[in-house]
Amino acid sequence: MPLTIENEETCQLLSELGELTGASPEEALATAVSLAVEREREIQAKIGRVRTIASKARALAEARGTQLMTSKEMNEFLYDEDGQPH
Predict the structure, then answer these.
(1) Alpha helices in the chain (DSSP H)
(2) Which tens digit of pLDDT belongs to each residue from 26-54?
(3) CB 40 within 8 A of CB 48
């Protein structure tokens, strides 16, 4: 699929990236887009994990009514037995 880039600043940045990496403009663009897609996938995965934790916290809060969690309960909720986030 042919791509025409008409934005001069984008063309200059692409050219500079190619010069810095020794890649052709097409290779530099492909690498930059690939990295951006991977970064966005990671962000979306993190957002999904946060939403899951928030959903579980909301359900737990609703089940408990107005009772607050102790700090120990909060740690057990947020972290596994190795201290890693769920």
Answers:
(1) 8-21, 25-64, 71-78
(2) 899 999 999 999 999 999 999 999 999 88
(3) no
Rounded to an integer, what distance in angstroms lies between the CA atom of residue 48 and that of residue 55?
10
pTM of the model as a whole: 0.62
pLDDT tens digits, one per residue of 49-65: 999 988 888 888 788 77
- Buried (b) or exposed (e) across 69-85, using 16+ Cβ within 10 A? eeeeeeeeeeeeeeeee
Identify residue 66 by its one-letter amino acid code: T
Residues whose CB falls within 8 Å of the CB of residue 16, separated by 6 or more in sequence, listed in order: none
**Are 7 and 14 contacting, i.e. CB atoms less than 8 angstroms apart?**
no
Three-class DSSP category at 85: strand
- Please give the angle made by the CA atoms of 46, 51 and 57, to the nearest 5 degrees: 130
Q: Is the dihedral of CA 57, 60, 66, 67 positive or negative?
A: negative
